[in-house]
Amino acid sequence: MQENYLAKWLNNDLSEEELAEFKKSAEYASYEKLIDVSSTLKAPDFDVDKALNDFKNNNPQKDVKVIKMNPMRRILRIAAAIAVIFVASYLYISTLDESVSTQYAERSEVRLPDNSEIILNADSRISYSDKNWKKERNVSLKGEAFFKVAKGQKFTVATKDGLVTVLGTQFNVENRKGFFEVTCYEGLVSVTFKGKETKLPAGNSFMAIKGEVLKTESPENTIPSWMNNESTFKSIPLEYVLNEFERQYNIEVKTQNVNLGQLFTGSFSNTNLNLALQSISTPSQIKYELEGNNVLFYAENAPK
Amino acid sequence: MDNVCEEEVFSSLFKTNSKTVFNYIYYKFGNEEKAYDVVQEAFVKLWENCSKVSPEKAKSYVYTVANNLYLNVIKAEKVRLKYANKSNDTSYESPEFLLEEKEYKEKLDKALNSLPENQRATFLLNRIDGKKYAEIAEMEGVSVKAIEKRMHLALKALREQIEGI
Predict the structure, then answer these.
(1) Quick one: fold of A98-225?
(2) Chain A CA closest to residue B52
(3) What is the sign, positive or negative, of the torsion defined by CA atoms of B3, B5, B6, B11?
Protein backbone atom coordinates (compact mmCIF):
# COMPACT_ATOMS: atom_id res chain seq x y z
CA MET A 1 0.00 0.00 0.00
CA GLN A 2 1.28 3.45 -0.84
CA GLU A 3 1.88 6.20 1.68
CA ASN A 4 -1.23 7.85 3.15
CA TYR A 5 -3.42 5.33 1.39
CA LEU A 6 -6.44 6.23 3.55
CA ALA A 7 -6.34 9.80 2.24
CA LYS A 8 -5.88 8.53 -1.32
CA TRP A 9 -8.75 6.12 -0.92
CA LEU A 10 -11.06 8.91 0.16
CA ASN A 11 -10.02 10.89 -2.89
CA ASN A 12 -10.48 7.89 -5.24
CA ASP A 13 -6.77 7.95 -5.94
CA LEU A 14 -6.04 4.30 -5.24
CA SER A 15 -5.25 1.99 -8.13
CA GLU A 16 -7.66 -0.89 -8.77
CA GLU A 17 -5.33 -3.45 -7.23
CA GLU A 18 -4.75 -1.32 -4.16
CA LEU A 19 -8.46 -0.73 -3.76
CA ALA A 20 -9.15 -4.46 -4.04
CA GLU A 21 -6.45 -5.18 -1.48
CA PHE A 22 -7.80 -2.53 0.90
CA LYS A 23 -11.35 -3.84 0.53
CA LYS A 24 -10.15 -7.24 1.59
CA SER A 25 -8.58 -5.95 4.79
CA ALA A 26 -10.27 -6.38 8.14
CA GLU A 27 -10.48 -2.66 8.90
CA TYR A 28 -12.11 -1.68 5.59
CA ALA A 29 -15.65 -1.97 6.95
CA SER A 30 -14.92 0.28 9.93
CA TYR A 31 -13.41 2.97 7.69
CA GLU A 32 -16.47 2.77 5.44
CA LYS A 33 -18.67 3.35 8.44
CA LEU A 34 -16.49 6.21 9.69
CA ILE A 35 -16.75 7.96 6.33
CA ASP A 36 -20.44 7.23 6.13
CA VAL A 37 -21.26 8.72 9.50
CA SER A 38 -18.87 11.64 9.24
CA SER A 39 -20.61 12.73 6.02
CA THR A 40 -23.66 13.54 8.15
CA LEU A 41 -21.73 15.89 10.43
CA LYS A 42 -22.56 19.56 10.33
CA ALA A 43 -20.86 22.80 11.25
CA PRO A 44 -22.78 25.35 13.31
CA ASP A 45 -24.98 27.78 11.41
CA PHE A 46 -23.27 30.84 10.06
CA ASP A 47 -25.32 33.67 8.64
CA VAL A 48 -23.15 35.28 5.99
CA ASP A 49 -25.44 38.27 5.46
CA LYS A 50 -25.65 39.03 9.14
CA ALA A 51 -21.88 38.75 9.46
CA LEU A 52 -21.41 41.13 6.56
CA ASN A 53 -23.87 43.59 8.06
CA ASP A 54 -22.10 43.45 11.39
CA PHE A 55 -18.89 44.09 9.59
CA LYS A 56 -20.23 47.11 7.73
CA ASN A 57 -21.71 48.61 10.86
CA ASN A 58 -18.40 48.42 12.64
CA ASN A 59 -16.20 49.46 9.74
CA PRO A 60 -17.39 52.52 7.85
CA GLN A 61 -16.41 52.66 4.24
CA LYS A 62 -13.32 54.61 3.52
CA ASP A 63 -12.43 56.65 0.52
CA VAL A 64 -10.74 54.70 -2.14
CA LYS A 65 -7.34 55.96 -2.94
CA VAL A 66 -5.36 54.28 -5.61
CA ILE A 67 -1.79 55.42 -5.90
CA LYS A 68 -0.28 54.63 -9.25
CA MET A 69 3.41 53.99 -9.15
CA ASN A 70 5.65 55.24 -11.84
CA PRO A 71 6.34 52.12 -13.91
CA MET A 72 9.84 53.28 -14.87
CA ARG A 73 10.79 53.72 -11.25
CA ARG A 74 9.59 50.25 -10.49
CA ILE A 75 11.66 48.71 -13.26
CA LEU A 76 14.70 50.65 -12.12
CA ARG A 77 14.23 49.35 -8.60
CA ILE A 78 14.04 45.77 -9.80
CA ALA A 79 17.08 46.25 -12.01
CA ALA A 80 19.05 47.65 -9.08
CA ALA A 81 18.05 44.72 -6.88
CA ILE A 82 19.10 42.21 -9.53
CA ALA A 83 22.45 43.96 -9.97
CA VAL A 84 23.08 43.82 -6.24
CA ILE A 85 22.28 40.12 -6.15
CA PHE A 86 24.66 39.42 -9.05
CA VAL A 87 27.55 41.31 -7.51
CA ALA A 88 26.99 39.77 -4.08
CA SER A 89 26.79 36.23 -5.40
CA TYR A 90 29.91 36.76 -7.54
CA LEU A 91 31.83 38.00 -4.50
CA TYR A 92 30.52 35.12 -2.46
CA ILE A 93 31.26 32.38 -4.99
CA SER A 94 34.80 33.61 -5.62
CA THR A 95 35.66 33.05 -1.95
CA LEU A 96 34.12 29.57 -1.88
CA ASP A 97 36.19 26.44 -1.69
CA GLU A 98 36.27 23.76 -4.32
CA SER A 99 34.15 20.85 -3.27
CA VAL A 100 33.27 17.40 -4.53
CA SER A 101 30.51 15.22 -3.13
CA THR A 102 29.02 11.83 -3.82
CA GLN A 103 25.46 10.56 -3.45
CA TYR A 104 24.33 7.20 -2.15
CA ALA A 105 25.67 4.34 -4.29
CA GLU A 106 28.16 6.68 -5.96
CA ARG A 107 31.95 7.04 -5.92
CA SER A 108 34.26 9.72 -7.21
CA GLU A 109 37.95 10.42 -7.80
CA VAL A 110 39.48 13.81 -7.15
CA ARG A 111 42.92 15.00 -8.22
CA LEU A 112 44.27 17.84 -6.14
CA PRO A 113 46.52 20.66 -7.49
CA ASP A 114 49.68 18.85 -6.29
CA ASN A 115 48.66 15.54 -7.87
CA SER A 116 47.55 14.04 -4.59
CA GLU A 117 44.59 11.75 -5.14
CA ILE A 118 41.38 11.33 -3.17
CA ILE A 119 38.87 8.57 -3.80
CA LEU A 120 35.49 9.34 -2.25
CA ASN A 121 33.21 6.55 -1.03
CA ALA A 122 29.41 6.86 -1.19
CA ASP A 123 27.60 9.76 0.53
CA SER A 124 30.76 11.74 1.24
CA ARG A 125 32.01 15.25 0.63
CA ILE A 126 35.37 16.93 0.55
CA SER A 127 36.24 20.56 0.12
CA TYR A 128 39.51 22.47 -0.18
CA SER A 129 40.71 25.88 -1.16
CA ASP A 130 42.26 25.95 -4.61
CA LYS A 131 43.67 29.44 -4.04
CA ASN A 132 45.50 28.69 -0.81
CA TRP A 133 46.65 25.24 -1.83
CA LYS A 134 50.29 26.27 -2.28
CA LYS A 135 50.34 27.76 1.22
CA GLU A 136 48.62 24.97 3.07
CA ARG A 137 47.24 21.62 2.08
CA ASN A 138 43.93 21.50 3.96
CA VAL A 139 41.03 19.24 3.08
CA SER A 140 37.83 18.93 5.04
CA LEU A 141 35.96 15.65 4.86
CA LYS A 142 32.49 14.40 5.65
CA GLY A 143 32.05 10.67 5.17
CA GLU A 144 34.76 8.31 3.95
CA ALA A 145 37.69 8.68 1.56
CA PHE A 146 41.03 7.15 0.66
CA PHE A 147 43.97 9.53 0.30
CA LYS A 148 47.15 9.14 -1.73
CA VAL A 149 49.15 12.18 -0.73
CA ALA A 150 52.06 13.43 -2.82
CA LYS A 151 55.22 14.25 -0.88
CA GLY A 152 55.52 17.83 0.27
CA GLN A 153 54.32 20.16 2.98
CA LYS A 154 52.04 19.07 5.80
CA PHE A 155 48.74 17.68 4.54
CA THR A 156 45.71 18.00 6.85
CA VAL A 157 42.34 16.29 6.73
CA ALA A 158 39.82 17.92 9.03
CA THR A 159 36.69 16.02 10.05
CA LYS A 160 34.00 16.77 12.56
CA ASP A 161 35.47 14.36 15.11
CA GLY A 162 39.20 14.46 14.54
CA LEU A 163 42.16 15.87 12.68
CA VAL A 164 44.56 13.82 10.53
CA THR A 165 47.94 15.22 9.48
CA VAL A 166 50.59 13.63 7.27
CA LEU A 167 53.55 14.46 5.09
CA GLY A 168 53.15 12.01 2.22
CA THR A 169 51.42 8.67 2.43
CA GLN A 170 48.33 6.60 1.71
CA PHE A 171 45.54 6.42 4.23
CA ASN A 172 41.79 6.06 4.62
CA VAL A 173 39.58 8.33 6.75
CA GLU A 174 36.00 7.58 7.66
CA ASN A 175 33.89 9.92 9.76
CA ARG A 176 30.18 9.11 9.90
CA LYS A 177 27.69 9.91 12.60
CA GLY A 178 29.35 8.75 15.83
CA PHE A 179 32.02 6.80 13.96
CA PHE A 180 35.59 7.87 13.26
CA GLU A 181 38.25 5.63 11.76
CA VAL A 182 41.65 6.26 10.23
CA THR A 183 43.75 3.54 8.63
CA CYS A 184 47.31 4.15 7.50
CA TYR A 185 48.55 2.09 4.55
CA GLU A 186 51.90 3.74 3.87
CA GLY A 187 54.14 6.23 5.67
CA LEU A 188 53.14 7.83 8.97
CA VAL A 189 49.90 9.50 9.92
CA SER A 190 49.16 11.63 12.94
CA VAL A 191 45.61 11.60 14.29
CA THR A 192 44.34 14.24 16.70
CA PHE A 193 41.20 13.13 18.47
CA LYS A 194 39.72 15.09 21.37
CA GLY A 195 42.94 17.08 21.63
CA LYS A 196 45.12 13.97 21.94
CA GLU A 197 47.61 13.13 19.23
CA THR A 198 48.27 9.54 18.14
CA LYS A 199 51.02 8.49 15.71
CA LEU A 200 49.86 5.84 13.30
CA PRO A 201 52.58 3.90 11.44
CA ALA A 202 51.75 2.02 8.23
CA GLY A 203 49.51 -1.00 8.75
CA ASN A 204 47.67 0.47 11.76
CA SER A 205 44.18 1.79 12.42
CA PHE A 206 42.67 4.26 14.83
CA MET A 207 38.98 3.90 15.64
CA ALA A 208 36.51 5.71 17.90
CA ILE A 209 32.82 4.93 18.23
CA LYS A 210 30.57 7.43 19.96
CA GLY A 211 33.58 9.33 21.27
CA GLU A 212 35.30 6.30 22.74
CA VAL A 213 38.61 5.09 21.37
CA LEU A 214 38.61 1.37 20.65
CA LYS A 215 41.44 -1.08 20.04
CA THR A 216 41.56 -2.31 16.48
CA GLU A 217 43.52 -4.92 14.62
CA SER A 218 45.82 -3.97 11.80
CA PRO A 219 44.41 -4.01 8.29
CA GLU A 220 45.48 -6.92 6.12
CA ASN A 221 45.22 -5.21 2.77
CA THR A 222 47.19 -2.46 1.14
CA ILE A 223 44.12 -0.50 0.14
CA PRO A 224 40.73 -0.21 1.84
CA SER A 225 38.36 -3.01 0.91
CA TRP A 226 35.67 -0.64 -0.35
CA MET A 227 37.95 0.26 -3.22
CA ASN A 228 37.66 -3.39 -4.28
CA ASN A 229 33.88 -3.12 -4.08
CA GLU A 230 33.62 -4.78 -0.74
CA SER A 231 32.77 -3.33 2.67
CA THR A 232 34.64 -5.02 5.48
CA PHE A 233 34.05 -4.83 9.23
CA LYS A 234 35.83 -6.14 12.26
CA SER A 235 33.81 -6.18 15.50
CA ILE A 236 31.73 -3.19 14.46
CA PRO A 237 28.20 -2.61 15.88
CA LEU A 238 25.58 -3.78 13.39
CA GLU A 239 24.08 -0.28 13.25
CA TYR A 240 27.11 1.07 11.36
CA VAL A 241 27.18 -1.95 9.06
CA LEU A 242 23.56 -1.31 8.05
CA ASN A 243 24.30 2.40 7.57
CA GLU A 244 27.12 1.54 5.20
CA PHE A 245 24.81 -0.90 3.39
CA GLU A 246 22.28 1.89 2.88
CA ARG A 247 24.97 4.14 1.46
CA GLN A 248 26.35 1.55 -0.94
CA TYR A 249 23.02 0.48 -2.39
CA ASN A 250 20.85 3.56 -1.84
CA ILE A 251 18.27 1.37 -0.15
CA GLU A 252 16.27 2.18 2.92
CA VAL A 253 16.88 -0.21 5.80
CA LYS A 254 14.35 -0.92 8.50
CA THR A 255 14.81 -3.28 11.43
CA GLN A 256 12.50 -5.10 13.74
CA ASN A 257 13.61 -6.70 17.01
CA VAL A 258 17.19 -6.63 15.84
CA ASN A 259 19.95 -5.85 18.34
CA LEU A 260 21.78 -3.03 16.57
CA GLY A 261 24.61 -3.12 19.08
CA GLN A 262 25.69 -6.68 18.31
CA LEU A 263 29.14 -6.78 16.81
CA PHE A 264 29.60 -7.76 13.20
CA THR A 265 32.73 -9.21 11.66
CA GLY A 266 32.75 -9.90 7.97
CA SER A 267 32.24 -8.18 4.67
CA PHE A 268 29.62 -7.61 2.06
CA SER A 269 29.78 -7.07 -1.67
CA ASN A 270 29.09 -3.55 -2.92
CA THR A 271 27.98 -4.81 -6.32
CA ASN A 272 25.77 -7.84 -5.68
CA LEU A 273 22.72 -6.96 -3.61
CA ASN A 274 21.45 -10.45 -2.83
CA LEU A 275 24.90 -11.67 -1.89
CA ALA A 276 25.35 -8.64 0.36
CA LEU A 277 22.02 -9.21 2.11
CA GLN A 278 23.00 -12.79 2.82
CA SER A 279 26.45 -11.80 4.00
CA ILE A 280 24.89 -9.50 6.58
CA SER A 281 21.91 -11.57 7.70
CA THR A 282 23.40 -15.07 7.97
CA PRO A 283 26.20 -14.41 10.48
CA SER A 284 23.94 -12.07 12.48
CA GLN A 285 21.22 -14.71 12.56
CA ILE A 286 18.55 -12.39 11.32
CA LYS A 287 16.22 -12.59 8.37
CA TYR A 288 15.48 -10.04 5.70
CA GLU A 289 12.77 -9.13 3.31
CA LEU A 290 13.50 -7.06 0.22
CA GLU A 291 10.72 -5.00 -1.28
CA GLY A 292 11.56 -2.51 -3.99
CA ASN A 293 13.82 0.09 -2.45
CA ASN A 294 13.23 -1.06 1.12
CA VAL A 295 14.68 -3.88 3.09
CA LEU A 296 13.46 -5.07 6.46
CA PHE A 297 15.78 -6.98 8.77
CA TYR A 298 14.02 -8.88 11.51
CA ALA A 299 14.87 -11.35 14.24
CA GLU A 300 14.43 -14.97 13.29
CA ASN A 301 12.02 -15.99 16.02
CA ALA A 302 10.14 -12.78 16.51
CA PRO A 303 6.73 -12.45 14.90
CA LYS A 304 6.61 -9.94 12.10
CA MET B 1 -8.33 46.11 -12.56
CA ASP B 2 -10.50 45.02 -9.64
CA ASN B 3 -9.57 46.51 -6.33
CA VAL B 4 -10.33 45.03 -2.93
CA CYS B 5 -11.12 48.54 -1.66
CA GLU B 6 -14.18 48.64 -3.92
CA GLU B 7 -17.14 47.75 -1.83
CA GLU B 8 -18.60 45.35 -4.35
CA VAL B 9 -15.39 43.37 -4.67
CA PHE B 10 -14.94 43.30 -0.94
CA SER B 11 -18.51 42.17 -0.26
CA SER B 12 -18.25 39.34 -2.72
CA LEU B 13 -14.97 38.23 -1.15
CA PHE B 14 -16.67 38.30 2.22
CA LYS B 15 -19.63 36.29 0.99
CA THR B 16 -17.58 33.57 -0.68
CA ASN B 17 -14.99 33.10 2.05
CA SER B 18 -16.37 34.04 5.45
CA LYS B 19 -18.24 30.78 6.03
CA THR B 20 -15.15 28.69 5.33
CA VAL B 21 -12.98 30.85 7.57
CA PHE B 22 -15.59 30.49 10.28
CA ASN B 23 -15.71 26.69 9.96
CA TYR B 24 -11.95 26.42 9.70
CA ILE B 25 -11.41 28.27 12.98
CA TYR B 26 -14.33 26.52 14.61
CA TYR B 27 -12.91 23.08 13.74
CA LYS B 28 -9.61 24.04 15.28
CA PHE B 29 -10.95 25.74 18.32
CA GLY B 30 -14.51 24.62 18.92
CA ASN B 31 -15.99 27.95 19.99
CA GLU B 32 -18.61 29.58 17.77
CA GLU B 33 -18.32 33.03 19.27
CA LYS B 34 -14.56 33.19 18.92
CA ALA B 35 -14.71 31.81 15.41
CA TYR B 36 -17.20 34.55 14.57
CA ASP B 37 -14.88 37.19 16.03
CA VAL B 38 -11.93 35.84 14.07
CA VAL B 39 -13.91 36.14 10.85
CA GLN B 40 -14.69 39.78 11.65
CA GLU B 41 -11.15 40.63 12.60
CA ALA B 42 -9.61 38.88 9.62
CA PHE B 43 -11.82 40.87 7.25
CA VAL B 44 -11.05 44.10 9.12
CA LYS B 45 -7.37 43.46 8.41
CA LEU B 46 -8.15 42.82 4.77
CA TRP B 47 -10.17 46.05 4.64
CA GLU B 48 -7.40 48.06 6.25
CA ASN B 49 -4.88 46.68 3.78
CA CYS B 50 -7.18 46.58 0.78
CA SER B 51 -4.89 48.69 -1.37
CA LYS B 52 -1.97 46.33 -0.82
CA VAL B 53 -3.74 43.03 -1.38
CA SER B 54 -4.86 41.98 -4.86
CA PRO B 55 -8.22 40.22 -5.20
CA GLU B 56 -6.49 36.96 -6.17
CA LYS B 57 -4.38 37.07 -3.02
CA ALA B 58 -7.23 38.15 -0.76
CA LYS B 59 -8.42 34.62 0.00
CA SER B 60 -5.10 33.30 1.24
CA TYR B 61 -4.46 36.62 2.99
CA VAL B 62 -7.62 36.17 5.03
CA TYR B 63 -6.72 32.58 5.91
CA THR B 64 -3.26 33.61 7.02
CA VAL B 65 -4.59 36.41 9.20
CA ALA B 66 -7.26 34.13 10.68
CA ASN B 67 -4.67 31.52 11.46
CA ASN B 68 -2.42 34.03 13.19
CA LEU B 69 -5.29 35.44 15.21
CA TYR B 70 -6.22 31.96 16.22
CA LEU B 71 -2.66 31.21 17.30
CA ASN B 72 -2.26 34.43 19.22
CA VAL B 73 -5.46 34.70 21.10
CA ILE B 74 -7.24 31.48 21.64
CA LYS B 75 -4.87 28.62 21.65
CA ALA B 76 -4.82 28.06 25.36
CA GLU B 77 -8.45 27.15 25.75
CA LYS B 78 -9.72 23.66 25.49
CA VAL B 79 -11.57 22.27 22.52
CA ARG B 80 -15.11 21.16 23.05
CA LEU B 81 -16.87 20.68 19.79
CA LYS B 82 -20.16 19.21 18.80
CA TYR B 83 -20.54 18.23 15.21
CA ALA B 84 -23.14 15.54 15.36
CA ASN B 85 -26.08 16.32 13.16
CA LYS B 86 -28.89 17.33 15.44
CA SER B 87 -31.55 17.39 12.77
CA ASN B 88 -34.73 15.50 13.55
CA ASP B 89 -35.19 13.85 10.20
CA THR B 90 -38.04 11.42 10.35
CA SER B 91 -36.57 8.00 10.37
CA TYR B 92 -37.96 4.56 9.73
CA GLU B 93 -35.09 2.65 11.30
CA SER B 94 -35.51 0.33 14.24
CA PRO B 95 -34.94 1.82 17.70
CA GLU B 96 -31.94 -0.46 18.29
CA PHE B 97 -30.33 0.78 15.13
CA LEU B 98 -30.98 4.39 16.06
CA LEU B 99 -29.48 3.90 19.47
CA GLU B 100 -26.43 2.30 17.96
CA GLU B 101 -26.04 5.18 15.55
CA LYS B 102 -26.39 7.66 18.36
CA GLU B 103 -23.69 5.91 20.37
CA TYR B 104 -21.45 5.79 17.36
CA LYS B 105 -21.86 9.53 16.80
CA GLU B 106 -21.05 10.25 20.42
CA LYS B 107 -17.89 8.22 20.13
CA LEU B 108 -17.02 10.02 16.92
CA ASP B 109 -17.49 13.40 18.61
CA LYS B 110 -15.23 12.35 21.42
CA ALA B 111 -12.62 10.99 19.06
CA LEU B 112 -12.69 14.21 17.04
CA ASN B 113 -12.13 16.24 20.18
CA SER B 114 -9.00 14.30 20.99
CA LEU B 115 -7.43 14.77 17.55
CA PRO B 116 -4.63 17.31 17.10
CA GLU B 117 -6.20 20.54 15.82
CA ASN B 118 -4.63 20.44 12.38
CA GLN B 119 -5.78 16.88 11.72
CA ARG B 120 -9.28 17.72 12.93
CA ALA B 121 -9.47 20.83 10.75
CA THR B 122 -8.29 18.91 7.70
CA PHE B 123 -10.70 16.05 8.30
CA LEU B 124 -13.74 18.26 8.86
CA LEU B 125 -12.99 20.71 6.05
CA ASN B 126 -12.95 17.71 3.76
CA ARG B 127 -15.92 15.86 5.23
CA ILE B 128 -18.25 18.74 6.05
CA ASP B 129 -17.24 21.46 3.63
CA GLY B 130 -16.16 19.10 0.86
CA LYS B 131 -12.85 20.95 0.43
CA LYS B 132 -10.27 19.31 -1.79
CA TYR B 133 -6.84 18.52 -0.32
CA ALA B 134 -5.30 21.23 -2.51
CA GLU B 135 -7.69 23.87 -1.11
CA ILE B 136 -6.95 22.84 2.47
CA ALA B 137 -3.23 22.92 1.70
CA GLU B 138 -3.63 26.50 0.49
CA MET B 139 -5.50 27.49 3.65
CA GLU B 140 -2.95 25.92 5.94
CA GLY B 141 0.01 27.06 3.90
CA VAL B 142 1.47 23.56 3.59
CA SER B 143 1.92 21.01 0.79
CA VAL B 144 -0.85 18.76 -0.49
CA LYS B 145 1.20 15.83 0.66
CA ALA B 146 1.21 17.14 4.22
CA ILE B 147 -2.59 17.40 4.08
CA GLU B 148 -2.81 13.82 2.80
CA LYS B 149 -0.68 12.75 5.71
CA ARG B 150 -2.93 14.60 8.20
CA MET B 151 -6.01 13.03 6.63
CA HIS B 152 -4.47 9.59 6.78
CA LEU B 153 -3.45 9.97 10.40
CA ALA B 154 -6.83 11.45 11.31
CA LEU B 155 -8.71 8.49 9.82
CA LYS B 156 -6.42 6.05 11.53
CA ALA B 157 -6.67 7.75 14.92
CA LEU B 158 -10.46 8.13 14.71
CA ARG B 159 -10.95 4.48 13.89
CA GLU B 160 -8.64 3.39 16.68
CA GLN B 161 -10.33 5.64 19.20
CA ILE B 162 -13.86 4.65 18.21
CA GLU B 163 -13.11 0.96 18.30
CA GLY B 164 -11.05 1.26 21.43
CA ILE B 165 -7.94 -0.23 19.90
Answers:
(1) Jelly Rolls (2.60.120)
(2) A66
(3) positive
Q: What is the pLDDT of residues B35-48, one digit of tens each?
A: 888 899 899 989 88
Alpha helix stretches (DSSP H) within chain B: 7-29, 32-48, 55-73, 95-113, 117-127, 133-140, 144-162
Flag whether pLDDT at B123 surpasses 90: yes
Q: Where in chain A is the domain with CATH 2.60.120.1440?
A: 98-225
Q: What's the whole-number average pLDDT of chain A?
A: 83
Count of CB pairs separated by less than 8 Å, A with B = 109
End-to-end, the C-alpha distance of chain A in Å comes to 17
**What does the pLDDT look like over A244-295, one tens digit per residue?**
898 888 888 888 888 888 888 888 988 888 888 888 888 888 888 888 888 8
Q: How far is A8 from chain B (nearest CA, A)?
A: 7
pLDDT at position B87 is 46
Q: Which CATH number fits domain A229-299: 3.40.50.150, 3.55.50.30, 3.40.50.11030, 1.10.600.10?
A: 3.55.50.30
Q: Mark out chain A residues that contact chain B at CB-CB < 8 A.
A: 3-8, 10-11, 27, 30-31, 33-35, 37-44, 46, 48, 51-52, 54-55, 58-59, 61-62, 64-67
What chain B holds in terms of domains, given with CATH numbers, is: 7-73 (1.10.1740), 95-162 (1.10.10.10)
- Residue B50 CA to chain centroid, in angstroms? 25
Q: Express each pLDDT in A190-206 by its tens digit.
A: 888 888 888 888 888 88
Give the residue-averaged pLDDT of B112-133.
90
Answer yes or no: is pLDDT of A102 > 80. yes
The ipTM of this complex is 0.78
